[in-house]
Specification:
This protein is α+β, with helices and mostly antiparallel strands. It has a single domain, classed as 2-Layer Sandwich (Alpha-Beta Plaits). Helix content is about 40%, strand content about 25%. A 4-stranded antiparallel sheet has the order 2-3-1-4. The longest helix has 18 residues.
Length: about 140
């Protein structure tokens, strides 16, 4: 079933899947509990740099993220082309994400560590943040 068909299907209920805008981000429509905020970053890397980016991530950035208690859900080269990479991280809230990223990216360890080499590989990136329940989150973990 294609996307266009599923959206037009009479049983399609958008309220079943989407959270209503509210201050309490732990409440969702239809009684589905969502308590994890997952950031998905999609990196477009400069041609020919993906192997080096992956090495830098595994050897330097990933251990650093672990030391900073950042919950890395999944990461790796994208399957659709030679220049894409993804990173998924879990946070307790949007405020937790902001605080965590400000602390990590503002740290001396990051700025004097792998920052320049990693940035040199990146053409650009996009990020989204979604809310997931525990089962969905565990399904994404590598």
């Amino acid at each position: 079933m294609g996307l266009r068909h599923s959206l037009a299907h009479p049983d399609h209920d958008p309220g079943r899947y989407y959270r209503h805008a509210a201050k309490d981000h732990s409440k969702v429509t239809k009684g589905i509990d969502v308590n994890h905020f997952v950031e998905v970053r999609s990196y477009n890397l400069k041609p020919g740099t993906r192997d080096e980016f992956h090495r830098l991530f595994l050897e330097e950035a990933f251990p650093m993220l672990q030391r900073w208690n950042v919950d890395v859900v999944a990461y790796g080269p994208s399957l659709h082309d030679e220049n894409s990479y993804y990173l998924m991280r879990r946070f307790d809230s949007l405020a937790h994400r902001e605080q965590s990223e400000d602390s990590f990216y503002g740290s001396v360890e990051w700025r004097q560590g792998p920052r320049e080499a990693i940035i040199a590989c990146i053409e650009n990136y996009a990020e989204i943040v979604i809310e997931l329940d525990e089962a969905a989150l565990q399904g994404l973990r590598k």
